Every structure is written in structure tokens, then in C-alpha cells.
Amino acid sequence: MAIERVYIYNNTSVIQDEVLSHRLGLVPLYIDPRLMEDAPADYQTQSTDRNTVVFSLNIACSEREDAALGETDPEKLYHNSNVYASDLEWVPQGEQVKLKEDPPRAVNPKILLAKLRPGQEIAMEMHAVKSIGRDHTKFSPVATATYRLMPHIQLLKPGDR
């Protein structure tokens, strides 16, 4: 499952709406796919609590009153200076109330979505659906593969080649 639709009500952050929506779509979600039906063909008229999981994000940045003079760390200067995947709130719909024991959430709550400064806020609703990797890579249930170059460096004496 992945976030497919993002309804942005207010975004005064520096990150553009389209970029933020794309970042949200790539956040892996922890939801048992056996409990959900496949995404409907006509999303606008056929969305139900059996095929759509709703999340909301309402967050605003403000200054901390107790920040030390001369402090430069945004985490200590401001409330909600970083928006993480853990800030996504699941909004149960209909029969989804039975999922309260193991609620839908981001697989990794430490994924950074946006950075805010005082006066900036984000308010949105997101709809996640179940689909397959053929539709979009974000639905592919694989891990990210990385590599690291490990060169073998040998220092030679001057004159050795």
C-alpha cells in the first residue's frame, strides 16, 4: 500500500506541493494488505473503507520560549521544525476501527518529509490504496538496494610503478 492521493489544504512551507506529494507517495506504509481490497478503477466514486486508508497531517512550526540565547539548533529553537513520517495520523474509516490494535503507519517513522520555520504550516489529507508494482514502483514490496565502493589502495614507494 502507498499514498496515492494527497489533498493539500494549506502548505506555507518552502517545499512545493508537488514535491511534498511525491515524497509522501514514496513513504512505505505498514498495513496488512490482506485486510484491504485493490484500488478501485474509478477512485472518485468507488472509494470505500475497504480499499482506502486515510491519513492526515496538520502541523505548524512555532518558536520555543525556553530556547537558550545564541542557540542555533533548529530542534532546540522551534517546535515542529522537522516534519517526519511519524507525524502522519491515521484516520479510521468505517470498519477500519478494528485495526486500532495494530494501526496503519509509516514503516520508518524517522523519514524526513519537510522542514518548517516559525509561521509555516502544513495541513493535508492523504489516501493510501493497495496496488501492484506494474502500476507504480512505490507499490513494489522490495527493499532499497545500495552499494558502496571499496577500493583497494596500495601506496608505492617513489620510483615504483
Q: Can you tag this structure with a few keywords?
A:
single chain; 161 residues; mainly beta; 4-stranded antiparallel sheet; two-stranded antiparallel sheet; 3 helices; 10 strands; flat
Give a count of the beta strands, DSSP E runs of length 2 or more: 10
Q: How many helices in DSSP terms?
A: 3
Structure classification: mainly beta
Q: List low-pLDDT spans.
A: none
Determine the mean pLDDT. 87
Q: What is the approximate shape?
A: flat
- Walk across the major sheet and give the strand order: 1-10-3-7
Major sheet size, sense and barrel closure? 4 strands, antiparallel
Q: What is the CA-based Rg, rounded?
A: 21 Å
SSE pattern, N- to C-terminal: EHEHEEHEEEEEE
The helix content, as a percent range, equals: 10-25%
Q: Per DSSP, what share of the residues sits in E-state strands of 2 or more residues?
A: 25-35%
How far apart are the termini? 56 Å
Describe this structure in words.
The strands form 4 sheets. Strands 1-10-3-7 form a 4-stranded antiparallel sheet, covered by helices on one side. A two-stranded antiparallel ribbon has the order 2-8. The mean pLDDT is 87. The protein is 11% helix and 28% strand. The protein has 3 helices and 10 strands. With 161 residues, the protein is mainly beta.
Q: Could you give a short description of this structure?
A:
The protein is mostly beta strands and 161 residues long. Helices cover 11% and strands 28% of the residues. The strands form four sheets. A four-stranded antiparallel β-sheet has the order 1-10-3-7, covered by helices on one side.
